[in-house]
Amino acid sequence: MNKKIIEGLQILSISLIWLLFTGIAVWIVTLIRESLKLHDAPDASVGISIVAIPVFFLLASVLTYVFVGLRKGRKEHTER
Amino acid sequence: MEYASAEPHPEAALLRPIENPGKSFYYIVGILLVIILYTGFVYFRQLLYGLGVTGMAQPVTWGFYIINFVFFIGISHAGTLISAILRLSKAEWRRPITRMAEVITAIVLAIGGLHPIIDLGRPDRMMHLFYNGRLQSPLLWDVTSITAYFTASTVYLYIPMIPDIAILRDRGVQPRWLYEFLSWGWQGTEKQHKVLDRAMNILMVVVIPIAVSVHTIISYIFAMTVQPGWHSTIFGPYFVVGAIFSGIAAILVLMIVFRKVFRLEGYLKHIHFNYLSILLLIMSLIWFYFTFSEYLTGYYGHEPNEMRVFWYKFAGDFAPFFWAMIICNFFLPVALLCNSRTRTIPGILIASISVMIGMWLERLIIVVPSLANPRLPYPTGIYIPSHTEWMLFLGGVSVFVLGYMVFARFFPVISIWEIQEGRHESAKAVNERIRSYMPDPEPTSAAE
Amino acid sequence: MKWGMVIDLQKCTGCGECAAACKLENNVAIVAHKESEMGRTMLWMDMLTIYEGEYPRLRVRQIPRPCMHCDHPPCTKVCPVRATYINEEGIVAQIYPQCIGCRYCMAACPYTVKSFNWYKPSFPPGMARTTNPDVSVRPVGVVEKCTFCIHRLQIAREQAKSEARDLRENDYQPACGASCPTGAIVFGDLENANHQVNRLAHNPRATKLLEDLGTEPKVIYLKEVD
Q: What ipTM did this prediction achieve?
């Protein structure tokens, strides 16, 4: 298959991962706001869920780091 | 089949399942697909008529689906966790095991995560969780933690696999575009190795707390209620221990099957089984310790409702399951694994299968008896799962087998590059490491 | 305002009229015999059988058991979608269109008062056309339970408003209380000193079921004295 298409797909997948994780973060924030509004046992559950947000972003960052790093680490094209 | 590069690879045995899957692969896939299709039909019936087609009733309102949910997530546990711990502790014997273990996690977690949805009376309203979710419900914590664990373990499976995908790409294995896409231009340069190493180091550290949190939170579903037999502070670690225990058993079973099917005797040696089975033995002892303290505190406290559940398990309707669990999880594996004469591959296989059965029974014993003994005097019956529930259990197992087979068809289940790295570099690295552990030589007397 | 119920076991004969009235009032599905044998009977107001003493002095009692409408309900805390919640007047209500049917609330309820629609609710021939129009018939796959006939409160409140007066004690009575032949079930506002329940709740005979769990039920039983 065409190299360009594959490259496009790769960049697309990275953006999708970021989109997904941002979506999850937005969802958790909405839940926290909702629970504060409804006065649900907020402290414990809010604490637990706030921890989840950076975890997702860390995962996305690691993936991006790998993808960008691998691209940068390639040999010069003339070498091949 | 003709491949671009036909020269034999030094680790040819690992590439065989991908390059030459053989006919039996397709037969088994066919059989599994038939089972899965039938399961789909059974589930469709449940969608159509409602949860009435199951054996659940009042007061036992949770049955097989929740039991299997806890069980599958438990199995999924060991994979990533064990792999991360072995990698972190630089255990050299990990090399052929890590990938296999990680794949279990990814596949079983997906199956386990689906179970609460199967259990819903109104799966069509599942989206309510997203726009009307309530954070104070432990079920919501589960949704978050399982999502986190699933993504983390998939990433953790994928990133160390990139060099292997590149090997397949360079050998011209079909479908080429897939390997091209997934290998991200890996060429094995020093810089790329550095990036990969760093990413793996971060992931190893991140994945361990996530894994522990997942099963702790699953136990919270039960522990956060006030029901007798569930409302226990020990439940979090108890579930985590049980999860790792059953997970190691699952890894061992899979290793034995793969060794047999793909003739990997050269890679999965007796020493690997020996080390892992000792780990299984230790987990069995820890599991027994937890079970013992859990029930002894309940028994000594002698709270009447707690005691009803206690006797229901020890001498009531659930006694056969309870004692079978103790035998399967403790006496049998300990007896087999303590003795080096029975710690052979067949012995380990029997112990592992027994642990998997025992751990499934443990989930049954946690979920059902507490529900079957309500505090107020209600007429109660015994929970008998229906055909639908059995079928969905079998279907879940089939999806796992199929998932694993498809994975093994396209990707090497033993990390090729890590084995090669082990061959070339680790002897030197280990030597150096050992030298660094040793006390420095005494300074010569002249210095005094 | 805090709605509550007092059940005087001295007056209760265990006839089960309350359970029948509740079932008709709230369109609670009538399940087939086979299903009922499995333990899928749906009763918002159930009759608990209580055995007291041993054989020669054995006493069997039937006592009515509605939802306790706890002040600290264990069920609302675990609902992942807020399909059950406690309103400002202390009624633990259900929102059927919101329920996803996870049955967590059923597992968490220490009184086991909730019922689940295992199948689409069914009624014997003819009865389907006589359902109470004030109460929705539940769909398949949701959890339901006693609501203290909250629809009657809504109607009574509208009525009082249209007549430009305050809500009177007798305006809002759930079906069980209204039907009790011996007047054993008394319903009203626990915080209103003029209501009968307020006085009865402080009766020395007053007890609550499983009080030690700290759920603070708003259904109060008056013990028998003999």
A: 0.89
